[in-house]
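Two proteins, back to back. First:
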Amino acid sequence: DATGAVAGYALVCTDVAARARWARRRRVAFAVGALLLLAARRGSALERRFLRLRLRDGWVLWRAGATPPLPVDAHFNTVAGHRGGSGGRLLAAHIDACTQRAGFPGWYGEINAIAGRRAASLERSGGRVVGRTPNRTLSALVGRPVERLTVVRMLPGRSASGASVDAA
């Protein structure tokens, strides 16, 4: 932020094929490991519950067959005091710059939030919430409904097709 303090981080993936391969390997490794642990009845009751819920959430997402809304995937987080403020804007500007250098019209990210929260602040920051999926794993762990929000952000002056949009 303006004071030089760390306000958060952003990881930006512009290699769509590499990300898809990485995600597929991670999903398979987690599912196999979780099923083996559950079959062996290892871990505490809470750990086994987490694994069952996470497997169910993963199954639901896989069955939905959703494709990413844009090719660039941004994983980011901000320190609580900077959400929607200068730190959030700096991170968005950094992600925008990476996206623009790669030649894409915009980016997307997924954020877990207590149901009914954060969507408005994300939209004030220039994003648009395009999807809401229940996150049953986190909901069970925190004891409140949690949603996985899919947020897209188009670069200023670009359309979803990547074409420049002239201001008239």
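And the second protein:
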Amino acid sequence: MHHPIAIVAAGVVLVFVQIALALSGYSPMPGAEDALAGPDSYMRLLRVEVWANSEGWRDVGFPLSNAPYGETLHWTRPFDVLLLVGARPLGWLIGFRDGLYWWGAMISPLLQFASLLALSWATRAHLSNRAFVFLALLFVTQPALAAVYSVARPDHHSLLAFLFVIGVALFLRGLAGRLRCCGAAGVIGGLAIWVSIEGAAPVVVALGVLGAAWMVRGEWYLRDVIWYLTGVALALSVAMPLEHGFAALAALEYDRISIVHWGLIVVALTAAGLVERALRRLADPGWLARMIGGAAILAAPLMLVAFVFPDFLGGPFVEVDPALGAIWLDHIDEVQTLNAGDFAIYLGPSVLAGAYLAYKIWRRRQQCYSNSLGLIYLAVLLAVFGSLAAYQVRWSIYPAIVALAPWVLLLRAMFQQKIEWRLSSRIRIPLRTPLFLAVLSAPVAGGAILMSLGLGASAVAGLASQPKDGAACPWAQFAP
């Protein structure tokens, strides 16, 4: 961790920016008429209230919507538990309903500060105290992250972002040879899958990087794969009975954790264990043996999907009536495709960070492969989640997080350059400040220029869900 003064300074920056966003109208003002960010926030708190007052742990039906049948939600219980744990003590002082509201209004900023602490732990070896405070400023002002961690937005995406930071930090340590860190990263990945199926994407990327590293270089990377899969399997094995109960463990669900996801991980883990045991008998397994082993590990879960869970290929919404896509799902802000202006603002830092990582990987090409693997992992994360974010804006939180440290290191490198403009032998104008400002402002400036040219308005101008005709839905009136 960085120095306590740096941590306090980062916390002050966080509080200042959150207040500024609320006063500017970008995020809701707690206690105001439109007191929460959009319908999902109201739905989440109402769901927890219903659960706390009458319903059981595993009853995911929501009776207040779609009357008289109720509505079955794909949300799981971990974020509900965080809301309930904080609301109960406040309820003793101001009543449960008010306690739930105020805790729900504050939980995402609290998770943002927890994510800052995790970022400090992850970057301590690479960033000075002052650089970390600057990273904190970038962290709280990125549009994608400001939306997710907003005040009055009790949404599980802030928890997913927090788990993502921890998982990446642990995985990077695992790549350095700490097998237990790989196992711990797998546990975090399993918890993220429990929170939302969206959490499976970082797990797939991590396994892909480890598998590719093993097939190319061999060494201990297959053990890393086994440790990581073991961590994911343990987390899912605990989550399954907690979420569904033992009586419903065999239920097939694709939009939240179920035996489908547990089965894929366990089959992959079993295949990896068998391949590791088979290759152990070879004195020096070559690249061909590793390629065959990797193909076998990959084929095992694919065969399970093909013969047992074929609907898995249809995605998490495979059981949803297709008509809902046209009349509802396709019009939600967070599933919109980024236009040119949005791309510059949301993914501009990722492009700059990716260029910096590519340069560092190229500079290390003649050094030990393991020294570059962490950089390669970050570059793959940027490429995968940047592509997903260009397709749907909801994925933009992940490249925004990954880009932070490389972007800060690039800015530091720009400021340390001794490039200057010589007007004469005696008059020299240093250019490091203009370079620094150019790299810092490039995403916003590029987005503003593209928008001025008519290449798109911001897809997520604020946190409130606004219909295309501009008439706001009165969620605060509907909720009671």
